Amino acid sequence: MMSQTVNAPRRGASVHPDASIHPTAIIDGEVTIGPGTVIGPGCMILGTLGPVRIGAGCTLVARAIVNGPISIGDGNVLYPNACLGFAPQDLEFDPQSAGAGCIIGNRNTFREGVTIHRGRTDVPTRMGDSNYWMTNTHLGHEGVVGNHCIFASGCVLAAHVVVEDRVIIGGCTAIHQFVRLGRGSFVSGAIGLGLDLPPWFMATGNNLAASVNLVGLRRSGATAEDVHDVRWCFKTVYRNGGTPQQAIPALEERASRPAVAECLAFIKSTKRGICHGAGRAARGTGGGAAARD
What angle is formed at CA 288 by the lines to CA 259 and CA 286, rounded to 5 degrees? Predict the structure, then answer.
């Protein structure tokens, strides 16, 4: 067991007696650490700008840094050099201002070099449960992430991005501010998105949706009817010769079916527009002429 002694001030800190704190860890300010949590060597838990709450059974392997205000749920794992809760990368934001902070759910994994920035205004950066952040991934301020998502190494999400449940993003991919990624969508690696990607669709090039995430659908437990309806939505939106907005009446006719209703609601609520379609684009092809409706 690690020693529970710390070599730094514990002003306002509340550490559960079942937590294990390495002697080289620094805990300062208004910090609450739950039972069974392990704070490894060189970690810093800073509640000097705002309160830090770390739930039960978390593991900070080494040199991880958590900066308040932030609430971290149970069973999360932070690998070396993961940094959660620092100021947004906004030149107009005072880094000494607490802002709205971060709210992190349960059982998330943050691999080496992950950065999650706190909210800039009165809206916190928020994340659900069981997400896996691979090395050197980033979530900007006021981003919203659901549950059971995977972010491959080097992918970056700008401020205000919304990622719904069961989304997978490939490595070295960039997601523009305010973009939404629908439930179960899949984004290939080494591309960029500045438009919304509807539920269960696959982006295979820059702003290009060219397929349906059939593997993700089946893994999620979708019924054969749901799979059929998602494929029908994709064909209706992208293969009928019109624009996505022109597909809305056809979608409305089948809106009693859950998968169709989900796609319809997503398209109706888009503010940036949704990704373009293409005839039969190969995986990894870029945007350009082939990406136009």
Answer: 70
User: How many domains is the chain partitioned into structurally?
Assistant: 1
Boundaries of domain holding 43? 1-160
Residue 173 lies in a domain: no
What is the spatial distance between Cα 127 and Cα 16, in angstroms, rounded to a whole number? 24
Q: Are the C-beta atoms of residues 137 and 163 closer than 8 Å to each other?
A: no
Cα–Cα distance, 124 to 102 (Å, whole number): 5
Q: pTM, whole model, 2 decimals?
A: 0.91
Q: What is the DSSP string of 72-98?
A: E-SS-EE-TT-EEEEPPS-TTS-TTS-
The pLDDT value recorded for residue 240 is 87
Q: Does residue 60 fall inside a structural domain?
A: yes
pLDDT at 224: 97
Phi, psi of 133 (to 5 degrees): -105, 110
- 2 falls within a domain: yes
What residue type is 284 in one-letter code? Answer: G
3-state secondary structure of 117: strand
In a domain, 213, yes or no: no
Name, in order, each residue with C-beta under 8 angstroms of 165's C-beta and a sequence gap of 6 or more.
128, 146, 147, 148, 149, 183, 184
Exposed, middle or buried: residue 225 (CB in 10 Å: 0-12, 13-18, 19+)? exposed
C-alpha 171/C-alpha 191 separation (Å) is 9
Mean pLDDT, 10 residues at a time, over the chain (293 residues)?
Answer: 44 90 96 98 97 98 98 98 97 94 98 97 97 98 98 98 98 98 98 98 97 97 98 96 93 98 98 84 38 31
